[in-house]
Amino acid sequence: MAAQELKRATGGPAPALQLEDLSGKQHRLADYRGKVVLVNFWATWCEPCRDEMPSIERLRASLDGRAFAVFAVNLGETEPRIRAFLEKVPVGFTVLRDRDTTTAKAWKAFILPATFLIGPDGRIHYQYFGELDWSQEKVRRAVLELLPP
Hints:
CATH class: Alpha Beta
CATH topology: Glutaredoxin
């Protein structure tokens, strides 16, 4: 992956997000207010999505214990297909299911992968469409700048 630039967003409020994880537990973005949340829309058939997953995991691991969370929102795939992928590429973040892609449409995630960095204020501060190395230092610094003291 080349060193791409994370794009600063307008700072508008993040759309609502309320989805189930693979065990059926509901997660709401609103419940994470006060944290920085990386919301990544992906699918197992999307090669760039698969390729960037390990870098998202490295970023998450490097910020373990901080006010940072990751939601990987899968678009419309079956639970067995998602689980089979996660057996090959294990991650320590929350994988959510957007079964009918309604959430992706609300977020205007029309290109995969589509990733948004939400600040503690609930607003979108950065976005990126396409594959990005989330573990590169300048991306990590952007996340650190958003973290509460």
